[in-house]
Amino acid sequence: MAITRGFTGRRKDRDPRLPPGQYDSGRDWPVLNAEPTPRLHTDRWTFTIEGLVAEPATWTWDQIQALPRSRYEGAIHCVTTWSRFDTTFDGVSVDTLLESVELDPDAAYVMATSHTGYTTNLPLEDVTDGKAWVVWDADGAPLTPEHGGPARLLVPHLYFWKSAKWVSGLRIMAEDEQGFWERNGYHDRGDPWLEQRYQGD
Amino acid sequence: MPSWQTATVVDVRRETPSAKTLRLRLPTVSAHVAGQYYVLRLTADDGYTASRDYSVASVPGSDTIDLTVELLPGGEVSGFLHDVVEVGDELEVRGPIGGWFAWDGSAPALGVAGGSGVVPLMSMLRLSRERTTAPFRLLVSARRPADLYYADELTGPEVSVAYTRQTPPGYGRAAGRLVAEDLAGLLTPDQTVYVCGTPPFCDHATDLLQSAGVDASRIRAERFGPS
Q1: Which Gene3D superfamilies has this protein been placed in (chain A) (predicted)?
Q2: What is the extent of the structural domain holding B9?
Q3: Does this complex have an ipTM over 0.95?
Q4: In the A/B pair of chains, how many CB contacts fall below 8 A?
């Protein structure tokens, strides 16, 4: 890597919780999505787990709200280089949702889907064991439409495009398939600590 | 995904009081499609790096690319690019990136830009002028005349400019944010619409477009954040 003439940067302020190449956005929470923000109504909202399962399972808004709650408090990291610390999300753990289905022994990947048609692929092990949630509150208030409300996926240990806004379900797969941004050049896994931003990183 | 390459700054041009265009010479011809962007990386002598994404404003097919950089308050990278970089410097870039917000010229398109969001749409406008393409129209929103990027090129029947705070003397449209009438005459049924600007601008523009009957599936938005 070539040194840039005259560049010193701002390391002295650097928070050790920041992955490489990220900066602290403070309390700003930038919005990035590739499609118009949809207005979804909770009376028609559903979340479905399908694919390599013995029987698909679907929850209505009221049904998913009745499940045991789970909270995440910590950082989120966007591939466009901002990170936001001390964000609180409330919802339900994906582990709790997966308890309702019987996974096929070949299950190894999931495709998260959105009510807009957005998709993103993840290894099954990245959404189990307390690593992923379906959330509807952020910092104590209902998730707004621009941040994915009424509910989004939350996979905070990966870049935030994996945390599908307006999530509609998980499709369980044996083989990895690429989702929307992954087909458009982004990495299949997206670990911010390994700077897996783009295909080939 | 392309690897890092070293580009040389061959020109620096001021667009507005807060925006500069850097023209970079690449080792090879840029393979970008209009609308795509490059990642630009700065490296300090101890290995510390900072990188940001910048849209290409110039047309494909050249070994130079124009990146227009808005100076952001306290911006670690934009401040360096504005205050320190000069012709002859070498900068690392990687790209092109982005297969979604991209127009190859084969089908009709409309661009709707707010402020610095005009940069990737400028690549599309220039492409439509320099090559044989399907029709491209552009609607640009800027605060004041002094804030309009590429002002000397934003003329002609295919371009409309709306000012939100202050207009030139005698301008035919009052200052104000985009309204439904601004879209009148610009929409055709077969267009893809590319919307680029801040998140509030994009939300406002996509709401207007959908109210005007444009299906969400034909709208592609790129939201510029404070990065």
Answers
A1: Oxidoreductase, molybdopterin-binding domain
A2: 5-97
A3: no
A4: 116
Instruction: State pLDDT tens for residues B108-167.
Output: 999 999 999 999 999 999 999 999 999 999 999 999 999 999 999 999 999 999 999 999
Cβ distance B44 to A9 less than 8 Å, yes or no, reads: yes
A50 lies in some domain: yes
Q: What is the 3-state secondary structure (H, E, C) of chain B?
A: CCCCEEEEEEEEEEEECCEEEEEEECCCCCCCCECCEEEEEEECCCCCEEEEEEEECCCCCCCEEEEEEECCCCCHHHHHHHHCCCCCCEEEEEEEECCCCCECCCCCEEEEEEHHHHHHHHHHHHHHHHCCCCCEEEEEEECCHHHCCCHHHCCCCCEEEEECCCCCCCCCCCCCCCCHHHHCCCCCCCCEEEEEECHHHHHHHHHHHHHCCCCHHHEEEEECCCC
Start-to-end CA span in chain A (Å): 15
In a domain, A22, yes or no: no
Minimum Cα–Cα distance from A195: chain B residue: B51
**B114 and B219 belong to one structural domain:** yes
